[in-house]
Structure formats: C-alpha cells, structure tokens
Amino acid sequence: MNNLSQFLPDNFNTNKKIALIAGRDNYPILIADRIKKAGVPLSLISFKGETEPSLIDQFEKKDHYSIKVGQLGKMLKSLASLEVNTAIMAGQVTPSKLFRGLHPDLKAIRVLNSLKEKNAESIFGAIGDEMQKIGVQLLDARSFMEEDMASHGVMTGGKFNEDLHSLSHGIRIAKEIAKLDIGQGVVVRKGTVIAVEGFEGTNEMIQRAGKLCDQKMIFVKTVKRNQDYRFDVPVFGMKTLEVLKEAGIKSAALEANRTIILDKKTVLKTAKKYKIQIYGYLENESIAH
Predict the structure, then answer these.
(1) What pTM did the predictor assign?
(2) 77 CB contacts (<8 Å, ≥6 apart)?
(3) 153 and 133 in one domain?
(4) Closest-CA residue to 9 (of 159, 115, 139)
(5) pLDDT at position 1
(6) What is the pLDDT of residues 161-200, one digit of tens each?
(7) 62 shares a domain with 158
(8) What SS3 state is found at 133?
(9) Residues 6 or more apart whose Cβ sits within 8 Å of residue 258
(10) Residue ranges of the chain with pLDDT lower than 50?
(11) Looking at residue 163, which CATH number applies to its domain?
(12) Same domain? 266 vs 161
C-alpha cells in the first residue's frame, strides 16, 4: 500500500506532477489542498464556467489550462503540455451542459460515436482509455481523501433512531438503481420509495421528496458494486445537508469507506445542530433485526 494514500498505486512517483481535472464546487478545492499538503506537485485543467475561480487563482499560468466542457482533444493536448503521467478527476459539471452548452471537439465526437451506451461509466471510461494512450494514468478520485471518508456507525453521535427495516429497504433499492446506472441515491419512508435519484442529481431528488412527504424519511447514498472510483465517487457536503434540512429529512445513510464527506468536521457539526443523523453503513452489513 502506498504510504501517502491507500488509493494510490504502489508505483506512484511523488516527484511527478499530478494534473487535477477540476469540475465545480468544493471537492476539487479540497483534494487540491490534500495533494499539496502531501508535498506532491500539482497542475490544473479547469472547465470554463464550472471550476471555482478561487481554485484557478492558486495556479501559475504555466501550470494551468482552461477548456470548455466536451473538448477532449484539447484536454489530451493540455495533459501532454503539462508533462504529467497521472491525473485525477474531481467535481461534476452542470448536468444540463451535457445537452445544452456542450462543445465537443472532433476527438470527443469520435469517442462518443463509438459508444453503444452513453452513461457516466462508458463515457468517462472511454476518456480514461484515451488518456492511457498518451501515457497518463487516471487515479482513484479518493486518493489523499481518507480523512474525509464516511466512517461506520452514527457519525453524528448517539444511536440511530430510524426504523432499521426501512433503512435496509433503502439500501437495497439504492443498490438496485445504482446497478442499473440510474443514480446513487434514494429517499424512503417505512418501506415506501419516495424518490429516486435520476440525471438531475441528488439535491433535486431530495427537494422532490420534501414536496411529497414531511416526516420519517431516510436519504440513502450508495455506490455500484463494481464502482469505478477514477471518476464517479459519491460525495456528501454542506449543500446536500442544507437541502435535507429544507426537505424535513432527519436521517442520511452513506456507504462507509466509499462516500466522501466534503469538509467532514463542519458537516457533522452542522448536522448535529440541525438534528440530522448521519449514519455510515457497510455494504454487507446486516442491519435489519
């Protein structure tokens, strides 16, 4: 196991720069901070209109390239110009931009046209293959983020006070929709599925649930059984916590050791203030009694 992070390959070269391919929100900012604290040099590829300006400002011009969403050819050229042999993806792009505002170059069009199914796994898997062809390895996006992972048990303290059968039901449903590439989250209530995450994302799904029901709901976040952590790590942060509060959902179950809690200490402290329980479950855990 690599001493810097259990998610890094054993042959990882700490003297070579990593290229951070950064989407929106705080995840790229946090991972950049962790990488720098580990003493590993870092460069940046940002997306116009997506990546936080505060992150971009941390990099000199020689270590930063800006591209539009969909410019795969330009991204590959940028990686070559940065002279890196590893890269890490963090943060999503605005979902609607995949339909409106996408700027695919010829390389992206060729790759997309070669895919029979166009979902996150197939698209980003193909991008990873293209990167590998130019000698750039796409790293596990959990690298350097161990301290931010969800842990087993009630992370907000005390005893989990929701119905355990309802929680088991939620985990089972979440696993099934993840297996079908629909989403990674559900909201359940006493054996009833209130809302399922689709392309719109977690927060919008929680808002829908809040409009349908106002008590005893559980939000469950999971991963696929064969999750590719290079580009699809489930995350939970302050934005989702605020949406849970607004929706009246008092319990969140996150898959332990596989879900990243962005700014974990602050999130857990705020969750306690809001009286929202955050529970970390294990994939094969038997919790229904």
Answers:
(1) 0.86
(2) none
(3) no
(4) 139
(5) 57
(6) 888 889 999 999 999 999 888 889 999 998 899 999 987 8
(7) no
(8) helix
(9) 149, 150, 223, 227, 229, 233, 234, 283
(10) 288-289
(11) 3.40.140.80
(12) yes
